[in-house]
Amino acid sequence: MLILPAIDLLDGRAVRLKQGVEKTKKVYSEDPPAVALQWQAQGAAMIHVVNLDGAFGRSQKNVQVIRQIIAVLDVPIQLGGGIKTLDQARQWLDLGVSRVIFGTIALTQPQIVAAAVAEWGASKIVIGLDGREGKVAIHGWLEQSETDVLALALRMRDLGAERVIYTDVQRDGEQVGPNIAGTAELARASGMAVIASGGFSKIEHFTQLAALQEPLIEGAIVGTALYEGSLSLPDLIRSTRQAPGKKGTPC
Question: Which of 139, 143, 192, 226 sits 20 to 30 Å CA-CA off 130?
């Protein structure tokens, strides 16, 4: 199972938020490229980067720092946060991002997902499914839809997408434990590769997820627990190492 350390960018700095609320930001580094190099040196095979400014409507805010992250790394990054058009997706892919994440527009403009899959292939596209009590949260988690997470996953699968990141919004940044049961059910019911996110804070959370041996659970994203020092990336990688799932690892 792949462990993806997260770098959340706000105004050029590496931060963490609680449940996506901007005013809860805690700054962990003024030098995000150095953080990326740290995770790579500790064994990360891919880095999960979120352009929080993009999610809050400031899509161009962190272009330079993302460019710098790509330049210093040998491993790929996947990028999310405010990617709403094909032109924006193209910009990031041309810059060197390996995969782009579509969030809100998967619900509001699914035709963009279909066009992106047709243009770049499913391997370059990830669907960000952010759930709160089983319903899809959109617009940087500020709004709640009436659409079931699974229903949207199935709709995306029908459009050719193969991979989702599932985040339980209520657990993100809170270190209260992930929604393991919900993650496993989403993988089984959708038939899509799933990367888990939100609430991972103990090594047991990762080993429990890996112990399910659900082949469609590709990996897990971890953020706050790494930055706070309660988890070690090398320890996580060692504890969850196993054969790749049906879709293979994303690297």
Answer: 226
